[in-house]
Amino acid sequence: MAASNSSSSSGKNGTNPLDAMGAFFSAQVTRRKLVTTEKQALATRLSAAGDTFPGSDHRPADRMRWMAELGADRLRVHQVVWPGTHDSATNKIGIPFVTRPFAQCQSLSVYEQLATGARVIDVRVQEERRVCHGVLATYPVDVVLDDVKRFLAETESEVLILEVRTEFGHEDPPEFGKFLVDQLGDHLIPQDEAVFGKTIAELLPRRVICVWKPRKSPAPKPGEPLWSAGYLRDNWIDTDLPETKFESNLKFLGQQPPAAGRRFFYRVENTVTPKADNPVLCVWPVTRRIHGYARLFIAEVFARGLGDKLQVFSTDFIDGDFVDACAGVTKARVDGAA
Question: Running DSSP on this structure, what letter comes out for residue 125?
């Protein structure tokens, strides 16, 4: 009788628990095979095409001052390939070995990233002015701003883009735009489209383009110290598949106007994102699927005739080689070789 009731219940629900479990594991196996196939596809591309591009052999003598090495009076804003970091202020987020692996996208502090050569910083904040990534919060945003100011005090001709946005699912911190202006003061380069055609020297002594992206608060206006959201754009897609992201980045970059005539910064993110339908949910094992192919991406950009469109190039867990690649293309542009 019990067996009959069980069978009847399964029939009413339309599913058998064992069948559902089997389908789940089958989907996981298929998913893992797809990830493996896409990883192998990028490795094959690299083996076949290589990762050489204009400036690929350049290595700055001092990454902390790589812009100054190129000449502040020669380097124009639109010529820079800006090495950036994704979710920049997550080096201490969450609980070590417990929640941190699911949200940490950088192992270096913001100061260390800038000293390594990063020039675009991506910071997410919540209502209490704390940095966050999704539901996890970390240190106050003051820590980031102190790191930025320390870097500026130790260099003379390095310009950076500081993007601060209210994280999805959170409210804007009260009067946060005013707070940013008070904190960064005379370092801020006011919102002005003429900036894109200027040399670094013409911007000095101001060295921070701060893009404030609130959810509900008024957006910064032209001439004000902060820049509005439309001046830093991207076409982010939510995937953990490396070749899918690689091709998406190339497609959307190809739709942009050349950097020399563009009046906004366009970002390409060399990252992939953990997905809930995949058993691997920690950031590093997932993003490493694409992490090592930054130079291959730049090489393909030039091979497809898109070299004049690359501008902001961001990564998880930034390293010196990523910075060297961006600085190399920048140098090639200044030298008239790209």
Answer: E
The pTM (predicted TM-score) of the whole model is 0.92
Strand partners, 140: 130
Q: Could you read off the pLDDT of 94-146 as tens digits, one per residue?
A: 999 999 999 999 999 999 999 999 999 999 999 999 999 999 999 999 999 99
Number of Cα atoms under 13 Å in the Cβ half of residue 148: 29
Residue range 320-338: mean pLDDT, rounded:
98
CA–CA dist 161, 44 (Å, integer)? 35
Cα distance between residue 338 and residue 329, in whole Å: 7
pLDDT beyond 80 at 289: yes
Q: How far apart are CA 197 and CA 247, in angstroms?
A: 30
* DSSP string covering 276-318: TTSS--SHHHHHHHHHTTHHHHHHHHHHTT-TTT--EEEESS-
> Is the model's pLDDT at 322 over the cut of 80?
yes
Listing DSSP states for 212-276 in one string gives EE-SSSPPP-TTSSSB-GGGEEE-------HHHHHHHHHHHHHTSPPGGG-SSEEEEEE-----T
What pLDDT is recorded for position 13?
57
Amino acid identity of residue 161, one-letter, is: I
Nearest to 192 by CA among 231, 152, 233, 219: 231
User: What's the sign of the alpha-carbon dihedral 317, 319, 325, 327?
Assistant: positive
Contact 337, 53 (CB under 8 A): no
Write phi, then psi, for 311 (nearest 5 degrees). -140, -70
pLDDT score at 216: 96
The pair phi, psi for residue 198, each rounded to 5°, is -90, 160
Torsion, Cα of 35, 96, 99, 101 (10° steps): -10
Backbone angle region of 220, left / alpha / beta, with phi > 0 → left and psi within -120 to 50 → alpha: beta
| Residue 125 contacts residue 132 (beta carbons within 8 Å) | yes
CB count within 10 Å of CB 77 equals: 22
